[in-house]
Amino acid sequence: MPSTIALDAMGSDRAPKPEVEGAIQAARHYGVSVLLVGREATIHAELARHPSAAGLPIEIVHASEVITMNDKAARAVRSKRDSSLRVGLRLVREGRAAGFLTAGNTGAAMATAKMVLGALPGVDRPALAAVFPTALGTAAILLDVGANVDCKPENLEQFAVMGEIYCRSIFGTKRPRVGLLSIGEEETKGNDLTRQSYQLLKQLPLLFVGNVEGRDLYNGSVDVIVTDGFVGNVALKVSEGLVEAIRAILKETLQSTITRQMGYLLARDAFKDFKKRLDYSEYGGAPLLGLKGVAIVSHGSSNGVAIKNAIRVAAEFARSGLNEKIEDQIRASRERIAATEKV
Question: Does 51 sit behind a cis peptide bond, omega within 30 degrees of 0 on the bond before it?
């Protein structure tokens, strides 16, 4: 049966325009039902601009309040009890939606999701997992990319388990290679967090390849890279900035002379493919792994295509049974560690 996804229609920088466009595209192309959550009058006015969407499985669920990017997460979660974030996540908890998506305040999304849905047994902190394109045409998963700034080794251990299961379930990688992001490949390199985490990760029943460096995000040598949310978010933002710089430099270079413009026309399809491979909107949003439910966080500047693909990711996540697999693996890991400690 097709999934129903609750979408925070007030989250993005240009809400609700991208959310409505993405919902229409997802309903049309993927057969997904979408619940647009937010201020009803505003959403209805935007939907009215798309008369061809009539008849698609799209509904509006009213929420009177909005948590903005400028709101302090902890305060907004407590004070704005009828926010589109909270109402949308409540739809998941009540079983009216299989998953939730927002392009809004990441900190507020994290705090609200943990409060409304709760964490899976054995998971101390849910983690945001981002997808990176590699030179081999595969995908690399980096987690955490911003949900947890300060982490303990046990948190990174759980991130490794969740990321490995996510890679297997969603991307079909039979035996994902898991690496720990550090400043060198040697076991002794890094800070206290990475050195202690290394010892925990090498005991897991995963294909742990040891420490990896920043360049390994893109060369295809590893499938899952584990780090704390502070370093992960910096890596994510640097990558986004680099992609934009490459696009701008390439565009300027190709337009500099008539000869190069002619060359671009001849290789236009190749450049379109290059742009698509680097476009974050093609990968949808980042799932919050470790929750009792499905919650996806997209970029605040998401366009309709990004929202459409994030809805697809939410639906795939919901159908995969990923949370049950994470819960089983976390439990097995803890039982194994407890048995080892007794010995």
Answer: no
User: Whole-angstrom Cα distance, residue 15 to residue 17?
Assistant: 5
Residue 208 bridge partners (DSSP): 178
> Which candidate, 184, 180, 176, 185, places its Cα nearest to that of 207?
176
CA 37 to chain centre: 20
The percent helix, strand, coil of the chain (3-state, each to 5) is 50, 15, 35
Say which residues have a Cβ less than 8 Å from residue 147's Cβ, sequence separation at least 6. Answer: 106, 110, 125, 126, 127, 128, 229, 288
pLDDT of 279 over the 60 cut: no
**pTM to 2 decimal places:** 0.83
In which band, very low, low, confident or very high, does the pLDDT at 1 lie, cut at 50, 70 and 90? very low
d(CA 36, CA 58): 7
Pairing of strands 4-8, 33-38: parallel
Cα gap 52→219, rounded to integer Å: 43
| Residue 148: its H or E element | none
Residues 209-230: tens digit of each pLDDT: 999 998 888 888 999 999 999 9
Which helix (H) or strand (E) segment is 242 a member of? helix 229-254
d(CA 252, CA 246): 10
CA distances from 293 to 15, 120, 127, 296 (A): 24, 9, 13, 10
CB 323 within 8 A of CB 114: no
Cβ atoms of 76 and 52 closer than 8 Å = no
42: nearest Cα among 24, 56, 61? 61
Do 92 and 6 touch, CB atoms closer than 8 A? yes
For Cα atoms 145, 300, 92, give the angle at the middle one, nearest 5 degrees. 80
Residue type, 31: G
Measured in whole angstroms, the distance separating CA 273 from the mean position of its chain's CA atoms is: 23
Amino acid at 210: G
Hunting for tokens 């500047």 — which residue is that? 301
Give the whole-angstrom CA distance, residue 83 versus residue 306. Answer: 22
